[in-house]
Amino acid sequence: MQPPAIPFNRFVFFSRPSRLTGLVIAMALVMAMTMELMLFPSTAAAMGRVDNSIYARLLGQHVKKNRVDYDGFKREEALLNSYLSILSATDVNRLSHNDRFAFYINAYNAFTIKLILTKYPGINSIKEIGSFFSNPWSKKFISLDGQTISLDTIEHEFLRPVFKDPRIHFAINCASKGCPPLLNQPYEGQTLEVQLNTVTRAFINDPKRTFLKDNTLFVSKLFKWFEEDFNDAPLLFIRQYANAEFKKELDRAAPQIKLSYLYYDWTLNR
Question: How many Å apart are CA 59 and CA 46, to the nearest integer?
Fold first, then answer.
């Protein structure tokens, strides 16, 4: 709600305002801004400062050693709901580029946890939430920016086409053992570049997820499903983020390297 305008003739102007007058005006402005933030909490989000503190606490408590404690999240589901409400109240269009990028990653991951909790502990895989006519990713249960959308909407309409960054696939989490581990901290606009590089390098340099045997490079099916996101050259992308030792192995095997895709485990990542 916009406050009523103050009539012009109610102001009294002095040709040389005193220091005291200036101090009073400054204090009034500070108090007004403070009251606005208290009365309208979404203002902080609209200014590019989404409050991820609740989510940070939940992740730090319930995501350890690349595994998610869904029992712990279930016990604190009310707290998770509070965070989801913050996301739902955020004016996404007023966030900066990096803050918006981080916002959608956090939203995808947090709402995925919520989706699991709707059926947990009675499921062993996210795929069990789907039906004959739909899959869990097309389920419209997410309230964002005045719309009711699905996880597919976040990934395929917001994240992939807008930000065009293949590292997305190592940041968003599908609640399964086959997907890259869920980071145990929220993504933040100011640290996003470092976070995306960290999770990408961790996945590619994990010998259980990416490894060379003779001239065959075994990789995640993510590189097959989203090959276009990797400019149809997943090997070049992998080499870019490989550590020094792994890069030497790849160079020794080139140019005869062929790709083979690993089994994708849809079991819950608990």
Answer: 24
Closest C-alpha among 146, 138, 203 to residue 169: 203
- CA–CA gap between residue 269 and residue 124 (Å, rounded): 9
**% helix / strand / coil in the chain, to the nearest 5?**
55, 10, 35
Helices (H), 47-126: 53-62, 70-75, 77-89, 97-117
Gap between the Cα atoms of 196 and 210, Å rounded:
18
CB atoms within 10 A of CB 214: 9
**Quick check: 268 pLDDT over 80?**
yes
Give the phi and the psi of residue 211 in degrees, each rounded to 5.
Answer: -150, 155
pLDDT at 3 over 80: no
Instruction: Name the residue among 125, 246, 105 with its Cα closest to residue 177.
Output: 125
Q: What angle do CA 250, 260, 152 make, to 5 degrees?
A: 110
Under 8 Å between Cβ of 168 and 175: no
Mean pLDDT over 236-249 rounds to 97
Report the C-alpha gap between 103 and 5 in whole angstroms: 34
Q: Identify the residue whose tokens are 């990408």.
A: 200
Structural contact between residues 63 and 173, judged by C-beta atoms closer than 8 angstroms: no
Paired sense of beta strands 142-144 and 67-68, if any: unpaired
- What's the mean pLDDT in 123-137? 90
pLDDT, tens digit, for every residue of 146-200?
999 999 999 999 999 999 999 999 999 999 999 999 999 999 999 999 999 999 9
pLDDT score of 91 more than 80: yes
How crowded is residue 79: how many other Cβ atoms within 10 Å of its Cβ? 15
Beta strands in 170-252 (DSSP E): 211-213, 216-219
